[in-house]
Amino acid sequence: MIVAGVALIVLALAVVVLAPRVLTRSAWTIDRPRTALVCWSVAVLLGIVGFLAGVTLVVLANRPVTDPFRLGDSPSHGLNIGVALLAVTAFAVAVRVRPGPEHDAVREAMRSGSAPHREIDGTPVAVVEAEHALACAVPGRSGGVLVSTGLADRLRTDELEAVVAHERAHLTQRHAVAVGVAESIERAVPWIPGARAMARSTRVLVEFAADDAAARRVGRDALRRAVLVADGTSALGAIRTSRLSDAPVGGEA
Ligand SMILES: [Zn+2]
Question: Is the pTM value of this prediction over 0.90?
Answer without folding.
Answer: no
